[in-house]
Amino acid sequence: MWKRNSMVQTIHITNIIFSSILEIGDTVRTRGYSRALADQRREEIFFGNEGNFGTYSIFSEPTIMPPLPPLPKIEKYHALPNIRVGNIRIKGLSASAIIQVGNTHNVYMDSKIHHIRHLPAEVMNKEEGE
């Protein structure tokens, strides 16, 4: 792993949620995993059985990762070994996102989202008539 100093003058992040990562500096392995089930209805009606990830196959399917080639042997000399960043401004990081200033050897991020929209019959009939 290459050793460098990561220096950030200012960082402003409004929101960082759902398995997102802010990393300043070096890391060997970063792993983030997020899953979300969004059930959208016109009215706030809850039947009590919502939110079971096992009901939807997307959440039980394995994430297929392509095989990584072997890492080449790299020898580096940094005359100026510092990573200098002035200002970072981010509105939001969500659903297994990463912002990093530095070196990373291995990164694995996974996000699975299943979005369901329930439309009332009158909306469906109106769309079919158009």
From TrEMBL:
It comes from Lederbergia galactosidilytica. InterPro entries: Spore_germ_GerPE. Pfam families: GerPE (PF10970). The lineage of its organism: Bacteria, Bacillati, Bacillota, Bacilli, Bacillales. This is Spore germination protein GerPE.
